[in-house]
């Protein structure tokens, strides 16, 4: 069974990377993926060899991915719910333009889920991080909390769960307006597209996530999607070969006002006897960091190549960077700025694969954490154990298996019912 799959990205290149990895996995299995994304990403998608489809009505750039996270409800309204109708219209146009057997879209794209529902096409939600929909027995997304052990901690988890549910529910009226415009009945929860999707694919390793209750029936762990962006690949290592600990400071690809944090990290790591490479990402200039001449600062480099020989990764906690470090068995110091990064930091700390500091940590605190991570071998041992689990998930090929299964199930049901077969 060879499928035409519409793969849909959202926001920054941090979300495009797992979508491109998914497309490559589908292509290798004999399927025909095409990718819908911000027009700014056309060149990278074309370089990867996939047909590109750009948004026409839906927002792009910072309008699609607001940089101000101070009000979660307002951010979700702007990013998810207010533009749902525009995303749905563009997606439905593309579904009708070319044969489409399945839709795979990033979890925030509720409008794309709406379009798949209108078209009657199997839809998989791709979550390149932990589940945004709260799950029983787990602290919710964007909370940065660990599993509770005391009554006070349970109260904190309950309060955080109520907060994200309330923030999402603020957007439901706009979602229902979009549903009515496409002839669909309103929903009673802002999390409806998670419940209605044939699959919710969590692109994390189960060993990395918290131990929780039984997942909903349509949820699957598929492991991280870790192909490197074409623009970050390098032919060789930047390490000098000197006999010193090697530290990679990995800046974020997103615009998260991280310049001040990177300055403090550079100042702290500069006091450590180590070889350090800093990759700033596209939103910070090397000249902004006042790095010493002994430290190499570049906009981008192959993290896979660098992490093969690194002793420590210092980062904000983006899921791709964290998962890639674990894959190579490298411990982490995570200093998160964004809400989803706090969740990754909590898991790294709980699993013993690294340390977590607040975004306000001083250079002295950062330096002390770096010294501890380099000195205590238990962190590398824990990171290596998680890395083995990540590798096993990558080898299992869960994404292709689940998309194929959900289409086969719908076709089988349609055949039994005498209904029309898609594709």
Report on the structure:
Strand 12 (332-334), helix 13 (339-351) and strand 13 form a beta-alpha-beta unit. This protein is α/β, with parallel strands linked by helices. It contains 16 helices and 13 strands. Helices cover 44% and strands 13% of the residues. The protein starts with a strand and ends in a 6-residue tail after the last helix. Strands 3-2-1-4-5-6-7 form a 7-stranded parallel β-sheet, sandwiched between helices. Strands 10-9-8-11-12-13 form a 6-stranded parallel β-sheet, sandwiched between helices. It is globular.
The gist of it:
With 423 residues, this protein is an alpha/beta fold. It has 16 helices and 13 strands.
Query: So what's the overall shape?
Result: globular
Return the average pLDDT rounded to an integer. Answer: 91
Strands across the major sheet, in which order? 3-2-1-4-5-6-7
Beta-strand percentage range:
5-15%
User: Biggest sheet, in brief?
Assistant: 7 strands, parallel
Instruction: Give the termini separation.
Output: 10 Å
Order of helices and strands: EHEHEHHHEHEHHHEEEHEEHEHEHEHHH
Number of helices: 16
Number of strands: 13
- Cα radius of gyration in angstroms: 21 Å
Low-pLDDT windows of residues: 419-423
Measured as a percent range, the helix fraction is: 40-55%
Q: Give the structural class.
A: alpha/beta
Secondary structure layout plus pairing:
Elements: E1 4-8, H1 13-28, E2 32-37, H2 42-47, E3 52-54, H3 61-64, H4 72-81, H5 84-97, E4 102-106, H6 110-119, E5 123-127, H7 151-169, H8 172-181, H9 192-196, E6 199-202, E7 219-221, E8 246-250, H10 259-269, E9 275-279, E10 296-298, H11 303-309, E11 312-315, H12 319-327, E12 332-334, H13 339-351, E13 354-356, H14 363-375, H15 378-396, H16 398-417
Parallel strand pairs: 1-2, 1-4, 2-3, 4-5, 5-6, 6-7, 8-9, 8-11, 9-10, 11-12, 12-13
Helix pairs in contact: 4-7, 5-6, 10-14, 12-15
């Amino acid at each position: 069974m060879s499928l035409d799959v519409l793969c849909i990205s959202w926001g920054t290149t941090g979300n495009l990377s797992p979508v491109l990895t998914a497309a490559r996995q589908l292509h290798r299995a004999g399927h025909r993926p095409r990718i819908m994304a911000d027009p700014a990403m056309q060149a990278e998608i074309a370089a990867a060899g996939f047909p590109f489809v750009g948004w026409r009505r839906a927002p792009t750039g910072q309008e699609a991915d607001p940089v101000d996270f101070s009000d979660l409800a307002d951010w979700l309204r702007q990013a998810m719910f207010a533009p749902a109708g525009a995303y749905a219209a563009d997606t439905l146009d593309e579904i009708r333009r070319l044969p489409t057997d399945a839709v795979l879209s990033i979890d925030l794209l509720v409008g794309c889920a709406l379009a798949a529902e209108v078209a009657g096409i199997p839809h998989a939600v791709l979550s390149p991080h932990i589940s945004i929909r709260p799950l029983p027995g787990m602290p919710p997304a964007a909370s940065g909390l660990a599993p509770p052990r005391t009554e006070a901690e349970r109260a904190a988890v309950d309060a955080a769960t109520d907060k994200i549910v309330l923030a999402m529910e603020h957007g439901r009226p706009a979602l229902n307006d979009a549903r009515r415009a496409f002839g669909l009945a309103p929903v009673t929860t802002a999390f409806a597209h998670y419940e209605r999707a044939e699959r919710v694919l969590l692109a994390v390793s189960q060993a990395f996530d918290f131990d929780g209750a039984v997942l909903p029936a349509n949820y699957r762990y598929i492991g991280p999607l870790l192909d490197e962006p074409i623009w970050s690949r390098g032919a060789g290592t930047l390490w000098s070969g000197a006999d010193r600990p090697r530290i990679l400071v990995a800046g974020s690809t997103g615009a998260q006002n991280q310049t001040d944090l990177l300055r403090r990290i550079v100042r702290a790591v500069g006091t450590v006897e180590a070889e350090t490479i800093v990759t700033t990402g596209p939103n910070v200039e090397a000249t902004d960091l006042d790095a010493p001449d002994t430290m190499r600062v570049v906009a981008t480099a192959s993290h896979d190549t660098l992490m093969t020989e690194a002793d420590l990764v210092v980062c904000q906690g983006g899921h791709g960077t964290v998962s890639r470090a674990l894959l190579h068995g490298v411990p982490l110091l995570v200093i998160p700025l964004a809400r989803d990064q706090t969740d990754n930091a909590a898991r790294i700390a709980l699993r013993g694969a690294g340390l977590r500091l607040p975004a306000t940590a001083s250079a002295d605190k950062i330096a002390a954490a770096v010294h501890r991570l380099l000195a205590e071998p238990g962190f590398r041992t824990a990171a290596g154990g998680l890395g083995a689990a990540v590798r096993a998930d990558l080898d299992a090929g869960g994404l292709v298996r689940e998309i194929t299964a959900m289409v086969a199930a719908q076709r089988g049901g349609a055949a039994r019912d005498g209904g029309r077969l898609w594709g």
